[in-house]
Design a protein that fits this description.
The protein is of the alpha/beta class. About 30% of the residues lie in helices and about 20% in strands. Helix 5 packs parallel to helix 6. It is globular. Bound molecules: magnesium ion.
Length: about 250
């Protein structure tokens, strides 16, 4: 018998993992720590999150990193004054624990961005977001244009398939270099103190996080899917961080 007071779950839900002091923790931002907003610039940073992240970073002796699809500058602006190791644009730019930033090659040809911008003029509600190493076509404001946008993005990326791919994100298509992934960001940071020798744990909610999941698991760590372990609720991830801060 099912309990009518419990809403049906889309994903099987298991308890969140029990934090330990030897973790190196990698956290996605949107949809993991922050509730998804109608547009990327409309997210709200809940009160206390920045302080809690600072406490987690201290508890793990600095082995905490944010791994986001956003540019690093945006990550820093959202989490100010916190400035911890971080990867922006899915690993295209990585700030190491010593503060040095490393940048990957793999820029999107500017004419592709122009083509998407030109197409978006005919598709009210579609938002084209330029990043240094990718371009995102958001259709949250115009779901009827999903198929047309997918075709355009696939045609552009498909012209150089060995180097570029289209990611189907939440209500968005992102063209990015195949060489830039969140997994690479995990691998790079795990080479550095104080991450080195710890157990990588990657928490994320979206398709780009799967590269981070694979990298963490390949190094004997944990993949923590926000849907499976936190019922898809960033609020529950934020509450769990308070536990991590007490290890
Ligand atoms: Mg996310």
């Amino acid at each position: 018998m099912t309990d009518p007071s419990v809403p049906p779950q889309k994903h099987p839900v298991a308890d969140p993992p029990q934090p330990t002091a030897n973790w190196a923790l990698f956290l996605d931002l949107d949809g993991t720590l922050l509730d998804i907003a109608p547009a990327p610039d409309a997210v709200a940073v809940p009160e206390g999150l920045v302080e809690d992240l600072g406490a987690v970073s201290r508890a793990l002796h600095g082995a905490l990193a944010i791994v986001s699809g956003r540019p690093l500058g945006e990550v820093d602006r959202l989490l100010a004054p916190l400035k911890i190791p971080a990867a922006g644009e899915h690993g295209a730019v990585i700030r190491l624990p010593n503060g040095v930033c490393e940048e990957m090659d793999g820029k999107i040809p500017p004419e592709w961005v122009e083509a998407l911008l030109a197409a978006s003029v005919r598709m009210p509600g579609v938002l084209i977001e330029r990043k240094a190493h990718s371009v995102v076509a958001h259709y949250r404001g115009a779901p009827n244009h999903e198929d047309e946008l997918r075709q355009i993005a696939s045609r552009l990326a498909g012209s150089v398939p060995e180097h570029f791919e289209v990611l189907e994100a939440k209500m968005a298509f992102e063209i990015r270099s195949r060489d830039i992934t969140k997994g690479r960001a995990v691998e790079r940071l795990m080479q550095c103190e104080p991450f080195r020798g710890r157990m990588p744990v990657f928490v994320g909610d979206d398709v780009t996080d799967h590269d981070g999941f694979r990298a963490a698991e390949a190094m004997g760590g944990l993949a923590v899917d926000v849907f499976q372990r936190f019922a898809g609720r960033p609020k529950e991830v934020r509450d769990w961080l308070k536990q991590v801060a007490r290890v």
